[in-house]
Design goal:
alpha/beta; Rossmann fold; 2 domains; 7-stranded parallel β-sheet; 19 strands; about 45% helix
């Protein structure tokens, strides 16, 4: 398998200081949609996620709860693994930073940096946020609070190893210039460039005031700065430090790291600097998405408004939640969650538009065509027929372009444009009035609509996989014919379908979930 055909996508690894919320589900589900799409498009995909388990915050939380740190992170990591399973996430790896393979990888990266003269010992004195596991400059702190995040900071003084980040300012700016798509959306890239242009200081990369972390090679008194440790996970998953391994050669550099905008600096500044300093190529892209608010308010423990994704799935259905997340906001922008918005979107787009189209067509065929799918006569197509088929056929190339750009909501809109055309087509053609007067024309209309539904259900597999599988099962499409390579393969003759059933539930009253 060539590197050109390989595709490596990652979520951030999730910090295990709390249970998963809708923000974790959102990032993971979007990555899952992209991974599924790329697999259907013939790519050899590797999709990694996992948990970030070291650092002072986890050590203190474990101590407060009377647990050993490893026991604490074992319990908390399982919550995220459960999220992946219940969400039907198609990840290929679930990495934990406490695993031996990862500790070896992080230490190997440290050793490579040290060998290249990029690390030195000194003393750190400055502001540190335990909540963010991040250092802040004097200009970023006001009244004991980190201005970018609102987290409390404390003054820290301790011996520390430093990474020569200041030496990479011009090299990073040159890298950004040569790779104009390295950070997306563009507005986020501009923020990164301005930050680097303002000047970079050497970065403290070890701690001595706690020991819950990856030990620094050859110095047991120091543990690695949690972000140097955590970022290395992306390479651990594909075989690092064995850079000659098949997986590393195939998948590195990663195609895209998907992250929240709050951790963009670590991924777009520190990470490429670490990698280039170690002689390793940086990832091709870092995509920073926005935050979710709940009914217009930021999620917080004090407001007790964090949304449990598992409760959402149980109440509204997994596909409904997936669709809402993909469609409601442009990927990269902030979004607001409310149960009312989810219900309105699900009722309108899924139940009314898509579900009703499928049920109208297949129920009509079941009742009026003896349950056998009509075969399209390609030598007897009207202009309206040709237009409908062309719109459905062209959707794949349009969606492919948008998915490659991570324009998820626009890709979904493109599919729903086809659904809208199909609903207009059936209303205009009025097949129900042709059963007696022109049964051949009636069957031709149904054959065209069946082919449109087949294409639609193939296209919606990455977004709403369970519902799409039900639709494809109802038209008896073989499993092997459900990839994009078979998008233009028409259905054969003599296909008997089962009695159609509704695919999407419709709600009358919104039930608030929190």
């Amino acid at each position: 398998m060539s590197q050109l055909n390989a595709y490596y996508i990652t979520t951030p690894i999730y910090y295990v200081n709390d249970v998963p919320h809708i923000g974790h589900a959102y990032t993971t589900i979007i990555c899952d949609m992209v991974a599924r799409f790329m697999r259907l498009d013939g790519k050899y995909v590797f999709f990694a996620t996992g948990t970030d388990e070291h650092g002072q915050k986890n050590a203190k939380t474990a101590e407060a709860q009377g647990r050993a740190p490893q026991q604490h992170v074992d319990l908390m990591s399982q919550n995220f693994r459960n999220l992946m399973e219940v969400s039907h996430i198609s990840n290929d790896d679930f990495i934990r930073t406490t695993e031996p393979r990862h500790i070896a990888a992080a230490q190997a990266l440290w050793t490579a940096l040290e060998k290249n003269g990029q690390i030195y010992m000194d003393k750190y004195a400055g502001w540190y946020s335990m909540r963010d596991e991040a250092y802040y400059a004097e200009t970023e702190v006001k009244d004991g609070i980190a201005v970018p995040t609102g987290s409390p900071v404390e003054w820290v003084e301790e011996p520390s190893y430093f990474f020569k980040l200041s030496e990479w300012q011009d090299k990073l700016l040159d890298f950004y210039k040569r790779n104009p798509n390295f950070v997306a959306p563009k507005t986020r890239f501009n923020e990164v460039i301005r930050f680097v242009e303002s000047g970079l200081k050497d970065l403290s990369i070890s701690r001595t005031t706690f020991n819950w972390g990856v030990p620094v090679p050859n110095n047991k008194d120091h543990v690695m700065y949690v972000w140097l440790d955590a970022l290395t996970n992306y390479m651990t998953c594909v075989g690092y430090p064995d850079i000659d391994s098949a997986d590393f050669k195939r998948f590195w550099p990663a195609n895209v790291h998907v992250v929240g905008k709050d951790i963009l600096r670590f991924h777009a500044v520190y990470w490429p600097a670490f990698l280039m300093a170690a002689g390793i190529e940086p990832p091709r892209q870092v995509y920073a998405h926005g935050w979710w608010t709940v009914d217009g308010q930021k999620m917080s423990k004090s407001l007790k408004n964090a949304v449990d994704p598992l409760a959402l799935y149980e109440t509204y259905g997994l596909d409904q939640v997936r669709y809402f997340m993909a469609r409601e906001v442009p990927f990269g922008s902030d979004g607001d969650f409310s149960s009312k918005a989810l219900i309105l979107r699900s009722n309108s787009d899924l139940a009314n538009d898509y579900g009703n189209l499928v049920h109208r067509v297949l129920s009509f065929i079941f009742k009026n065509c003896g349950g056998t799918l009509p075969v399209m006569r390609e030598d007897d197509l009207s202009n309206d027929d040709k237009q409908m088929l062309r719109i459905a056929k062209e959707a794949l190339s349009k969606v492919r372009t948008l998915m490659n750009e991570m324009s998820i909501s626009k890709a979904v809109e493109e599919v729903w444009n086809v659904i809208a055309h199909a609903n207009k087509y059936i209303d205009a053609q009025k097949p129900w009035g042709l059963k007696e007067s022109n049964p051949d024309r009636m069957k031709q209309i149904m054959a065209i609509l069946t082919d449109v539904i087949r294409r639609l259900a193939i296209l919606t597999q990455p977004i709403i996989p369970d519902a799409s599988a039900k639709i494809l099962d109802m038209i008896c499409l073989p499993e092997d014919d459900r990839t994009f390579a078979h998008f233009d393969k028409v259905l054969g003759p003599n296909i008997k379908i089962p009695e159609p059933v509704g695919v999407f539930k419709k709600w009358e009253e919104p039930n608030e979930v929190s």
